[in-house]
UniProtKB/TrEMBL annotation:
Residues 280-289 have a biased composition (Pro residues). Belongs to the MoeA family. Keywords: Magnesium, Metal-binding, Molybdenum, Molybdenum cofactor biosynthesis, Transferase. Pfam families: MoCF_biosynth, MoeA_C, MoeA_N. InterPro entries: MoaB/Mog-like_dom_sf, MoaB/Mog_dom, MoeA-like, MoeA_C_domain_IV, MoeA_C_domain_IV_sf, MoeA_linker/N, MoeA_linker/N_sf. This is Molybdopterin molybdenumtransferase. The keyword Magnesium applies. Pathway: Cofactor biosynthesis; molybdopterin biosynthesis. It comes from the Bacteria. The keyword tRNA processing does not apply. It catalyses: adenylyl-molybdopterin + molybdate = Mo-molybdopterin + AMP + H(+).
Length: 483
């Protein structure tokens, strides 16, 4: 398909080349030391090692009696987990009452669980103690032991210094527990890419029934979940009117101090004069992660075809400067998503604004249906910008084409590769890849229909999008899982 570039006619990039270029354009962020609770879902940037052995000392695995030598054993003390250890080494014939997890005294050969122990007072035979005062008489434990039984030796589970997980492992809830148990308060992880969303459109409203001529925002609501699924995090959503100035302001690294006012209110009828308002407040507690694109180490991606032909993809140093102003929260994100304004109509200002800002447009249209007007650009400060079409299903298709590969590359999250037969009639496009909502079944991927660019109905019924290449003639197709 041919699309009009800034001032030239160019071939739209193939779907596969666009995805590869998007992934290559993402610069690996610097690993960040992150508090445990904030590291959930991130990828480890370094192997996870045991800072301490587990268990840290020889401990009892049972509530009972730690014993030395032959029984019966005279009980000479009590050791509780977290309490004072029994200082003296146990001599043959001695025992201490012990709790699970408490350190076993030196000399202990086994732990006799209380349910297997017989206790007498006075003499080992139970003579000399009165029923009224058994505690004043010596206590004896009797039972059968197996040497070494029920004692967890120091480092028996995990040796100090052991590598328990490799770099790249996902920090799951269980990993948080493991890391904490090994003495970690922070983890070195790839920071989750932070994403700012700009929803453009004078006709777009954000709550309630849209009046005639208005349309409810259907893209802003699905992006946070999609972004999380791909490994990122939406830090803010701004609503912008169809005008170049607010877009320019939002995309420009701010230099004046006038903090954006968070509001939950939504203007029922936006006017072109309305300033951009954050649809969601920026996080109250900023994370320690720097902007995702702030790597100082350009990694230079692969060259793609289409409009980037002959040009290297290099990573600029994203500016984290946020001295206040409309774009403050936008500037703090490594990736900016603009919804709508991707076409070349009278109210579509994105391309002109990008040109004025001196942005590097890496992908200007993709040969895919729906979603062909999508774009990828690098802003002068290094942030990546993904332009999604305004039609909601086209926006979803574009988000899976350009945004997901960028985020997966930044976050280090790989998507599973899947192919399937198509069980149902699908017509290929002569030049463009088609993304078709399907449900996976035992017979293959079944198209669910309802796949007009303006409707999310089909995608909501589907669990994947089938990638139908131009000229496809019945072969297996790639499936992209839907979030
Ligand atoms: N002359 C041409 N016109 C158009 C072409 C083309 O090739 N030549 N492509 C069409 C295609 S395909 C798409 S997709 C759209 C892309 O348009 P924009 O990205 O500029 O988006 P808008 O014009 O602002 O809106 C398009 C459509 O989507 C509705 N919309 C916008 N934002 C939202 C939202 N957040 N939630 C729900 N719906 C939204 C908007 O009201 C319009 O109906 O361009 C075509 N035109
Ligand atoms: O990109 Mo548009 O997809 O076909 O509505």
């Amino acid at each position: 398909m041919t699309v009009v570039g800034h001032d030239r006619l160019v071939e739209a990039m193939s779907w596969a080349a666009a995805r590869a270029l998007a992934a290559g354009a993402a610069c690996s962020p610097k690993p960040v030391s992150t508090p445990l609770r904030e590291a959930l879902g991130c990828r480890l940037a370094a192997p996870l090692t045991a800072l301490v052995p587990v268990p840290g000392v020889d401990v009892s695995a049972m509530d009972g009696y730690a014993v030395a030598g032959e029984g019966p054993w005279r009980v000479v003390g009590r050791v509780l987990a977290g309490g004072a250890p029994h200082e003296a080494a146990l001599l043959g014939g001695e025992a201490v009452e012990i709790a699970t997890g408490a350190p076993v005294p030196a000399g202990a050969e086994a732990v006799l669980p209380w349910e297997h122990a017989t206790i007498t007072h006075g003499t080992p035979q139970g003579e000399g103690a009165t029923a009224a005062s058994p505690d004043w008489a010596p206590t004896w434990a009797h039972g059968l032991i197996e040497v070494g039984k029920h004692i967890r030796r120091r480092g028996e589970d995990i040796a100090e210094g052991a590598v328990v997980l490799g770099a790249g492992a996902v920090v799951t809830p269980v990993v948080l527990g493991l890391a904490a148990g090994l003495g970690h308060d922070t983890l070195l992880v790839r920071p989750r890419p932070r994403v700012a969303v700009l929803v453009t459109g004078d006709e777009v409203v954000h709550e309630g029934l849209p009046a005639p001529g208005r349309v409810r925002d259907a893209i802003g609501p699905f992006l946070p979940g999609l972004v999380e699924w791909a490994g990122g995090h939406v830090t803010t959503t701004l609503r912008l009117p169809d005008a170049p100035h607010p877009l320019t302001k939002a995309l420009t690294t701010p230099t004046t101090a006038s903090p954006a006012t968070p509001t939950t209110a939504s203007p029922a009828t936006p006017t072109t004069a309305s300033p951009a308002v954050p649809a969601t407040a920026p996080p109250a507690t900023p994370t320690t992660a720097p902007p995702a694109g702030s790597s100082s180490a350009p990694d230079g991606g692969e060259l793609g075809g289409g409009v980037t032909e002959g040009r290297g993809v290099s990573c600029g140093g994203a500016s984290a400067a946020s001295e206040g102003g409309l774009g403050e929260v936008v500037a703090a994100a490594g990736v900016v998503v603009v919804c709508g304004a991707s076409s070349k109509g009278p109210a579509d200002h994105l391309r002109a604004v990008l040109a004025d800002l001196g942005a590097d447009v890496l992908i200007d249209g993709v040969a895919v249906r729906p979603g062909h007007p999508q774009l990828l650009a690098r802003l002068p400060d290094g942030r990546l910008l993904v332009g999604l079409p305004g039609n909601p299903f086209a926006a979803l298709a574009a988000a899976l084409t350009l945004l997901a590969p960028v985020l997966r590359e930044l976050a280090g999250t790989a998507a599973a590769k899947e192919t399937s037969a198509l069980a149902g009639a699908v017509r290929a496009h002569p030049r463009d890849t088609r993304l078709v909502p399907v449900r996976r079944t035992g017979e293959g991927a079944v198209p669910v229909g309802h796949d007009r660019p303006g409707s999310l109905w089909g995608a909501a019924l589907a669990d994947a999008l089938a990638v139908v290449p131009p000229g496809w003639a019945g072969e297996q197709v790639e499936l992209i899982e839907l979030p």
